[in-house]
Design brief:
single chain, about 110 residues, alpha+beta, four-stranded mixed β-sheet, 2 helices, globular
Length: about 110
């Protein structure tokens, strides 16, 4: 990933990506002990990132590996806010063109 990929940094996450040699899209999520001492908090970060990714994975290129590293600021945020930042970072890297307001309007 370091040799052939590129990464971009946001407030809540760091997004790295590279072309997949096997042609399959994959996701790796890294939440270290430095993020938070408690496993409960680290697991919540995993869930939030997975949920944000799940909503936009259909628009992502099929032949790319993604690695998302959680930063401490993510702890106070919701999945929608993380999804907005992920979309912003993907747009910055010119991987996709997605509107940042993709959630359903209130009725």
């Amino acid at each position: 990933m370091k040799e052939s990929g590129s990464s971009t940094v946001g407030k809540m996450i760091v997004l790295s990506h590279a072309k997949a040699p096997d042609g399959k899209r994959r996701l790796g999520i890294i939440v270290t002990k430095k993020f938070h001492k408690r496993a409960v908090k680290r697991n919540r970060a995993y869930r939030i990132v997975r949920e944000a990714y799940r909503h936009i994975k259909g628009a992502l290129p099929e032949d790319t590996w993604f690695v998302i590293i959680a930063r401490k600021y993510l702890l106070e945020k919701s999945a929608i806010e993380v999804q907005r930042e992920l979309i912003h970072l993907l747009n910055r890297e010119k991987l996709v063109e997605i509107s940042t307001y993709s959630e359903k309007p209130a009725k």
